[in-house]
Amino acid sequence: MRPARPLAKLRHALLLIPLAFAALTSTPTFAQPEVIIREAPPPMRVEAVPMERHGYAWDRGHWRWEGRGYVWVPGHWQRVMHNARWEPGHWEPHGPNWRWIEGHWVR
């Protein structure tokens, strides 16, 4: 039995690199389902914003739809993303309905 040549091993490794990248880039991502409701959300609650916390951005409280009605979600801290600003989630009119826009970082 002959030992494998180094060039043959290199050729096999070079063939596997594109396959590995293809596998990594083709993994599925799961998006948040779009939430559209007929009922307008209640008025925002007045919520005290805590003192600034270094390295974090305050995400204000909001109303979340829970299938049969709205439930208040209190504000919380989001870890700061470098060179980005936090855009809080919010409800926006969408024809006769209301659509939830998830909070996200804007660069």
Characteristic terms for this protein:
alpha+beta; elongated; 1 helix; 9 strands; 3-stranded antiparallel sheet; 107 residues; 19% helix
Percent of sequence in beta strands: 25-35%
> What's the end-to-end separation, in Å?
59 Å
| Beta-strand segment tally | 9
The profile of the biggest β sheet is: 3 strands, antiparallel
Envelope shape: elongated
Q: Major sheet: order of its strands?
A: 1-8-7
Residues in helix, %? 10-25%
Q: Please write the string of helix (H) and strand (E) elements.
A: HEEEEEEEEE
Mean model confidence by pLDDT? 83
Number of helices: 1
Rg on CA atoms, Å: 24 Å
Structure class = alpha+beta
Which spans of ≥5 residues are poorly predicted at pLDDT below 50?
19-30
Description:
The protein has 107 residues and is an alpha+beta fold. It has a domain at 36-45 and 52-106. Helices cover 19% and strands 32% of the residues. It is built from 1 helix and 9 strands. The chain has one helix at residues 6-25, and strands at residues 36-37, 56-59, 62-65, 70-73, 76-79, 85-87, 90-94, 97-101, 104-106. The strands form 4 sheets. A 3-stranded antiparallel sheet has the order 1-8-7, with no helix packed on it. It has a two-stranded antiparallel sheet with strand order 2-5. The chain has a two-stranded antiparallel ribbon with strand order 3-4. Strand 3 and strand 4 form a beta hairpin.
